[in-house]
């Protein structure tokens, strides 16, 4: 935006803008997907934890 401001906020080149926007949105989506997947996998793992005092014999 600094370069755009230096040109008195004239016409914006769509190709130049999309070169920044597309990787940025992709990074946000991948980060959000990673965060949600980690929550989901942690919830799925909850039933594997044993109760205090359990022997772990599986019986």
How do the helices and strands follow one another from N- to C-terminus?
HH
In DSSP terms, counting alpha (H) and pi (I) runs of 4 or more, how many helices? 2
Shape, principal axes of CA atoms:
rod-shaped
Overall pLDDT metric: 83
What percent of residues adopt helix (DSSP H or I)?
55-70%
| Structural class by sheet pairing and helices | mainly alpha
Please give the number of β-strands. Answer: 0
Distance between the termini: 64 Å
List unreliable stretches of 5+ residues. none
User: How does the major sheet shape up?
Assistant: none
* Rg from alpha-carbon coordinates: 24 Å
| Residues in β-strands, percent | under 5%
Word description of this protein:
- The protein has a domain at 14-46.
- 61% of the residues lie in helices and 0% in strands.
- It contains two helices and no strands.
- The chain has helices spanning 2-6, 14-44.
- With 59 residues, it is mainly α.
Topology:
Elements: H1 2-6, H2 14-44
Question: Summed up, what is this model?
Answer:
The chain is an all-alpha fold and 59 residues long. The chain has helices at residues 2-6, 14-44.
Relevant terms:
single chain, mainly alpha, 59 residues, 2 helices
């Amino acid at each position: 935006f600094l370069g755009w401001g230096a040109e008195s906020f004239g016409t914006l080149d769509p190709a130049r803008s999309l070169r920044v926007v597309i990787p940025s949105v992709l990074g946000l989506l991948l980060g959000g997907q990673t965060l949600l997947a980690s929550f989901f996998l942690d919830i799925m793992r909850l039933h594997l934890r044993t109760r205090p005092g359990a022997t772990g014999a599986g019986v």
